[in-house]
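Tutorial handout. Part one gives the primary structure; part two gives the three-dimensional structure as tokens.
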Amino acid sequence: MLLLKNGYMIDPASGTEGYRDILIDQESGKIEQIWQKETEYGSSLPKEMEVIDLCGQIVAPGLVDVHVHFRDPGFTYKEDIESGAKAAARGGFTSVVLMANTKPSVDTVETLQYVLEKGEKTGIHIHSCANVTMGMKGKELTDMEALSAGGAAGFTDDGIPLMDEEILREALRRAAGLHRPVSLHEENPALITNNGINAGRAAAHYGIKGSPRAAEISMVERDLKIALEEEATLSIQHISTKEAVELVRQAKRKSSHIHAEAAPHHFTLTEEAVIRHGTLAKMNPPLREEEDRMAIIEGLRDGTIDMIATDHAPHSTEEKGRPLTEAPSGIIGLETALSLGIRELVQKGYLTMMELICRMSYGPAKLYHLDAGYMKVGGPADVLVFDPNRNWTVDKFVSKACNSPFVGECMPGVVSYTICGGKMVYRREGL
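Part two.
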């Protein structure tokens, strides 16, 4: 047994917050009991148990990230399932959903099972999407029924947009019948000259054409229309433009099956970061303008965007050291996401801590039908403990990669403990 005393519990599922003592059954991996005061349990506790006094730190459901790249199989020099899981635990995440653009891609049950079986050995909950199309080529649908039965949490060709409207329409129909979401990367390659860099000040600075906002807007508009017609569950991934946010807002008024995710870098940075940091701030879709950043924050505030997802995208130092137009897009995010949410959204008054935790746990868990993101007696003992008033400096990572524009920054929000299934999977050094 493990007793977490004097923690300030935040549960977005019930809207409950306040000081609580939480008893965890480490054998069953469940929350055994939650008390408001020590007098409620007195001497009735088991004799053999570990007691941790949280001294008022926040205790919340383990975070859920439904958009991560662990590069396994095929690109394990960047990251693998073990190292990615350790990075997730350090960041307070107990559940992650892997993207399927590996090598081979996750378009067969065999590859899916490889990923899931490897994930079972990590200590956190590893889920995975499967591909929408074979080889991510956009021409032939995968066996979605077999992949769903094999454990696929959803379907995506993330990294490559689905250009064939009929393929997308059929995929949405089949996914709806399986009660699985389809998540889409929304960039029309026909409109992009140089990916990863906004076609604005950043592109002009480097003397290139970049990626125009219309590449995202046109795809979001088309795909929302199809999803509404098919009454299917659709998630717009890593949204980056104010126009796309408004399109999602309008679509959500018509259907509860429409969802969107925002990455921490898109609500924190603008294209100015690319001018300062070069390839370390290159990503797909690219960082846009201040009006876009603020529109994303407003979308998170009013619920248009119901999830924060990191799009954790590790690359090697050698890869990111290439010239801007040759280096791959993407940054790592698991170990900085909570702190960026606290700094950019909570401390600046855009979200309450309850709302931030909801966007980072209960919201994404609901979309993917995961048993996560809430705290109640009998529920999973997937727990995050963090101190929002303690600062840390971004100077090293548990991830294999270090491709982040936030290196050297001082951030609020230090993760003290991450507990998954009742087991301690991360404990801050010195505790």
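Part three, for discussion. The two ends are 18 Å apart (CA to CA). The first strand starts at residue 2 and ends at 11.
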